[in-house]
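During data preparation, a discrete fold description was generated, as reproduced here:
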Amino acid sequence: MSESWGPHDVGGQEGGPVDLSEHDIAHWEWQIDAMVRLALSKGLISDFAELRDGIERLTPEDYENFTYYERWAKSLAYTLVSRGIISEVALAEKARAIRDRQQAEAAS
């Protein structure tokens, strides 16, 4: 692979087996899908292809370790922050509040 290629540029390379089995979609994955569709409907992004830029900016380690919807979430966050729609601080505060709420729910 060329050094200038990103971790997503795998066309023509040997790959492992593709898991074609059906699987349940986690609630948070539905939420990410809904957020992307909401961003589309509100004109915050114009199409799904815009998420590609954020996905291409992932480090090779993140690209390899993130799931499909984790990549979408990271890309949507990057896009909204880069356009000034939300600040990194506000996004981090919201993420922290969600984690705190999830931990409290798990503890009860």
